[in-house]
User: Fold Geranylgeranyl pyrophosphate synthetase from Botryobasidium botryosum.
Amino acid sequence: MSHTYSRPRRGQAPRGRPRTSPPEPRAPGADIKAGLGSLVHFLDVPEAKAITDPGDVAIKNVRPVVSYNWKDAGSPTIIVPGSPLIWSDRRFPYTVQPDSGIAYIDQNAAHCLPSINPLEPLFLALNTMEPEFDMAAVDLVTDRNNLRKLLRWVTDDNDRDFRIDAQLLGEETVILTRWEEHNTEDSTGFRGFGHSFEREATKVPPGCRGTTGHHRIIQYTLGDLRVLCRSVVDAYDPALAGDAAPDGVDDLLEGLSGITLASSAPTPKTPESTSEINIVRAGKLVPQASIMELKSRSTRAVIDWKGVWPQVFFSATPTTVLGRHERGKFVSVERKSLEEMDSAYAEEAEAGFGKLIQALREIRAVVLSRGKGPGVAFVFMKDGRGSIEVYEKESEHPGVSPELLARYEELDD
Assistant:
């Protein structure tokens, strides 16, 4: 979930059930085959590979690397390292208004396209926080969303078209770029209370007022693949992050940070960085153990924890908090740990994860075989024969800034 980090006045309880209306027809989105050339290959769903140890359905060697927030500004601006919202453990009950306005589907693309590659902020954050990062020790750079789509494909649980763009960095690192038909949505119908719950159950972190979501990049191994994975983070638990401030100090710091940030100038561009994205330094990289995913459901609804699990699995999110409400009046929360979900679903998921790892190996092999250049796009059409079609890309536009990537090319030599 993503919204602007701000503190609007808390509204009164909505009267009765929020009025729903038929959704308006969605405007045509981007053409899934735009900018693509010849069809060069097909990928079929791999055969199930035996996983002898259920513990192999795990991500290992998790290390948080960098993070950033998008700032709501006139030109593309990120705050590095930024911070997730702070879970406030607010006393129940409290009432929130239904979600409204524009919601992000892919916030990076929404801020970057059409002139900037959506992976550029990831590399900017790396260059800012980890300038000596060893990209040669990474097999795949990807958004969590790509892994979720591919898992649904190999387990025959996908009912939507999707596309993933890919290119080679250095000699053996493959970059996977998320693609969406729409990067935002603005519905006039009732959408629930999830974004409003997230806003009302949290505090704005110091230095991050006016930002629109936190992105975190972690490094881990999945099977035999070394992955650098980006995902959105909803919040963090200050009690698990070692935060300690007397009552009232957080609010004072938040106010002061808003003043400081408003007068802060973006970091000047250097000759090595010609990105169109500005950088502001603020925030902190919070511990992995403190990261939280926030969900909301009515007190009568049954949540599909099995469906939630891949989302938090691929980002190694240790805690999911489910807010329970009665027509927008939140009355309780339920916490579910990643360890609990792993224990419940990992064994059943062995075959699917074996297929996913094999599919990622095949995707990587295709990109490596094509060498340097614009790269390829992996396209799945739900009305097709079940395979992923691989197309040449006609150009790299919008490619990641060559100046940003140059240092990783050099480090590979």
Residues 8-25, 246-264, 268-272 have pLDDT under 50 and may be disordered. Residues 152 and 158 are 5 Å apart (CA to CA). The longest helix spans residues 350-370. The chain has one domain: 36-84+101-285+347-412.
